[in-house]
Design a protein that fits this description.
Blueprint lengths: L12 H27 L9 E3 L5 E6 L4 E6 L1 H16 L3 E4 H7 L7 E7 L8 E6 L5 H15 L3 H8 L16
Parallel strand pairs: 1-4
Antiparallel strand pairs: 2-3, 4-6, 5-6
Helix pairs in contact: 1-3, 4-5
Length: 178
């Protein structure tokens, strides 16, 4: 999905994208809960989202015979890479630091640093986050302290802090099962 185009001057595109990604994750979670309650299926559907903010070439791209309204460029590639690596981290949602900054959400509770990595096609490392609203303050604090130890090269100190389970899935009340 694309925010900020073709609408010009839409300054809250990062916030809109973040809200939509969180709503999408909640909808998938609600779908699974309803399916499990009705059919006893457990979790049957998982979907990942990669969210990044930046400039892109947007418009009708292709030939006269076949074209499509789309976006291309480094921004789109990074969002796609984040979606793809979500599986390796068992995260349905990975968000770049640029998006959290642009949305004004970087310092909000629940956003957790997952990794700092250079994704394929980019030489500059990207700080990637996920959203963990169900995690307790103690879990989030231990996790953040683990990151400080890890970045400081104190790996033996970091390991026990990372071993505490943290729930990385959005959760809001679902509509009742009919």
């Amino acid at each position: 999905a694309i925010w900020g185009a073709p609408v010009q001057g839409q300054t809250d595109h990062a916030r809109r994208g973040l809200e939509t990604a969180l709503a999408f994750a909640e909808t998938v979670d609600c779908f699974n809960k309803k399916a499990d309650a009705k059919y006893g299926t457990g979790e049957i559907f998982r979907a990942r989202v990669g969210l990044h903010t930046g400039t892109a070439i947007v418009g009708n791209i292709g030939s006269h015979a076949r074209y499509n309204y789309t976006a291309i460029g480094d921004t789109v590639n990074l969002a796609s890479r984040l979606e793809g690596i979500g599986k390796a981290y068992s995260c349905e949602l990975l968000i770049s630091e640029e998006t959290l900054r642009a949305a004004g959400a970087l310092d909000q509770r629940g956003y957790v640093l997952v990794d700092v990595m250079a994704v394929k096609g980019r030489s500059t490392p990207t700080r990637i986050y996920t959203y963990a609203p169900k995690a307790s303050d103690a879990e989030l604090e231990a996790y953040q302290l683990g990151w400080k130890d890890y970045e400081g090269g104190r790996f033996a100190d970091a390991i026990p802090k990372f071993e505490r389970p943290v729930e990385f899935r959005p959760q809001k009340p679902c509509f009742p099962v009919a």
